[in-house]
User: What shape does this take?
Amino acid sequence: MTDMPALARSMETVPRSRIRELAEVAMSMDGVLRLYFGESNQPTPDYIKQAAISAMANGYTFYTENAGLPSLRRALADQYRKLQGVELDPDSEIVITASGVQALNVSLRTMLDPGDEALVLTPAWPNGASIIAMANATALQIPQPLCGDRYRVDFDALEAATGPRTKLLLYTSPSNPLGWVASEAEQQQLLDFCRARGLWLVADEVYDRLYYGGPLGEPVPSILRKATRDDAVVVIHSFSKSYCMTGWRVGYLIARRDLGRQATELNEFIISHAPSFAQKAAETALARGEEELIRMVGRLKENRDFCLSALDGMPGVTVPKPDGAFYLFPKIDGLSDSFAFCRRLLEETRVGLAPGVAFGAGGEGSVRICYAADRSILEPAMERLGKFLTAN
Ligand SMILES: Cc1ncc(COP(=O)(O)O)c(C=O)c1O
Assistant: This one.
C-alpha cells in the first residue's frame, strides 16, 4: 500500500496564533469580558452598511480590477493628499486588498525568496512573522526595549542581525501591542538604515488614524512623508480599525510602482480582489467617516486614560502611556508564563486578555488589553484584574 499523503513539511514552521488559542478557550465560556482580540466592540456605522446595500442594488456584484476599483484608489489618493500632504498615483502606487493582512501577505511575498531573512520589530502582531514563515523565509525578531517611559528601536541589534540574506525590515506604528508611535527621527533612521543596506522597509500603518498625540482625528505622520516614491517602501493599510469594518475585509497597500504591479498580479491568484460592494462601502467610509472617526478616537482616548489610571494602582504593573492604536501592554513583575497567567485570569475571573508571549520576542512577561470596548466592560475587567493581581 502506498503511504498516505502528508501535509507539507514547511507548514510546521508556521506558528499558531496564541491569541486564537486563548480565544478558543474563552469562546467556550459564558460571561467573558473579552479584551483579547484587536477589534472595537462597536458595529460598523449604519451609513457604511447602507452604502454596501446600495452598491449591491446598483450592480456591484461582479469582479473588479485586481488592483481594486479605480474610484476607491482615487479617493484614497485624495485622502492622502489632504491628510498627509503626499501625492500618490492611484493607477500604479495604490493596490486595494481584501484586508490589511492580505496587503501584508502579497507585499511580503513579492520581496522574499525561500531562505531569505526579514527583520521584524517586536513585540508585534504575530501575523507578520507567520506570513514570512509561509514564504519559507525566516523572521528575525528584534525586541523594542522600554527606556524610561518610551519604547525605542534598537538599531545596534538591527545592525547585528542584518546579513546577506536579509531582504526587509517590518515595523508597525502605531504598534500593536505596544501603542508606540515611531517619532519622526526614528522614521528617518529606519529609512536611512534600509536605504544604506538595500532593504525594503515595510511600514504597517493600519492604526494611523487612532492617534492621541495631536488634535483628535489627525493621523500619525506617514513614513511616506519622508520617503520618495522611488524608495523601496511599502505601507500597509486597512479599513478594519478606523471604520469598525473588521468583518468586511478591505485594506490596501501603497508601494513603489514595480511592487504595486507585482502585488496586483499576485492578488489574482490569492483572492483576485476585495468584494466589490465592500470596496464601494469603503469609498463611502472615506467620504463621510470623519465625524464618526473623531468621536471614536475621543472615546478611545478616554478609555486609554481610564485603564491607565486603573493599572497605576495595581501591584507590580509597569505600563507606559501609548500614543496610538487601542492597546495597553502592561508588564507584570515576576511573570514568566503569560499564557498560563491569562488562562487562570480567564478561568477565575472571566476576564479575557491576550498573553504577551503571543507577540514574539520581548512580549513574555506582559499582557495585552484591548481598550476599544464599552466602559461597562472595561470597568469590571479592570476591577477584577486588580483583585486578581493583589491576591496572587
Ligand atoms: C498591526 C496590524 N496590522 C494589520 C492588521 C490587519 O487587519 P485586517 O486584516 O483586519 O485589515 C491588524 C489586525 O489586527 C494589525 O493589528
Observations:
- Residues 38, 99-101, 125, 172, 176, 204, 206, 238, 240, 246, 251 surround pyridoxal-5'-phosphate (CB under 6 Å).
- The chain has a mean pLDDT of 96.
- The two ends are 57 Å apart (CA to CA).
- The chain is about 40% helix and 15% strand.
